[in-house]
Design a protein that fits this description.
mainly alpha; two-stranded antiparallel ribbon
């Protein structure tokens, strides 16, 4: 698998993902790092699907780092997730270069995200339950609330992905791009569209920017603040996206026909 192979440099450049993303972390970190991984992996016999399976496992086991109270293991978990997402950006380019793009790769990719996102958020909720605050501004609360927030955040992350797929199944003649991100979906409907699209890429709200911040919150011991913030952000984001797409689906008229 690790035997060095010849590389077609021209075809490699064509296969690399040079498209700009809507989010700063992707443009300046994940995509460049993913491209570096591809340049290394093309010298081996690693297949795109093997890479996809690997980063899925890395996401899963990086999430388990947050079950400990060790600050540096927590930071390592955040770094593991950042590296995993860079590898997620790399497997498509590797598939294009090796001509091994397949439906199986997309299937594994989708399975990875739907498994690891809830595991990540519940793990952060568990860390907060064990080692986080039990009062805010003098008001005490049961730390088990963090477990609930972790479940809410993880569930909403998966539904934010799948609500677009549900819409496309119902409206095949008017499908949307489900991976367009918040600027490509919600950004098309806000009042001040241009401001929104300039602000969001550098804000903490998009998923990729959120991943980039995990290690910093872990370093300073504020993962409890992190899970509270993102539980509300993703619950709000899910409600907004679901509402937007619901309004785009025709409802029945008085005669029972769809209009």
């Amino acid at each position: 698998m690790l035997v060095s192979v010849a590389v077609d440099k021209k075809r490699l450049e064509e296969a690399l993902n040079h498209d700009e993303s809507n989010n700063a972390s992707e443009n300046y970190f994940y995509i460049p790092l993913g491209s570096l991984f591809v340049r290394l992996l093309v010298h081996t016999r690693v297949t795109p699907n093997q890479l996809t399976i690997f980063w899925g496992c890395l996401m899963f086991f990086s999430s388990l780092c947050f079950w400990t109270g060790d600050r540096w293991i927590n930071v390592l978990g955040g770094i593991g997730w950042a590296i995993s997402y860079a590898l997620d950006c790399a497997d498509g380019s590797l598939a294009r270069y090796t001509n091994l793009k397949s439906g199986r790769g997309d299937y594994i990719d989708g399975f990875n995200h739907r498994l690891t996102y809830p595991v990540l958020m519940f793990s952060l909720g568990y860390w907060s339950y064990r080692w986080g605050m039990d009062s805010i501004f003098g008001f005490g609360f049961d730390p088990a609330v963090y477990l609930f927030l972790g479940c809410i955040a993880g569930t909403c992350m998966v539904l934010i992905i799948d609500v677009g797929n549900i819409y496309n199944r119902i409206m095949p003649e008017n499908q949307i791009v489900t991976n367009a991100g918040t600027t490509g979906m919600e950004g098309e409907y806000v009042k001040h569209k241009s401001f929104y699209k300039r602000f969001i890429p550098f804000s903490p709200f998009p998923f990729t920017n959120m991943l980039f911040l995990i290690s910093f919150f872990a370093l300073f011991g504020y993962l409890d603040v992190f899970i509270v913030f993102y539980a509300f952000i993703y619950a709000g984001g899910l409600f907004y996206r679901a509402h937007l797409l619901y309004k785009k689906i025709p409802g029945p008229d008085m005669s029972g026909r769809f209009r």
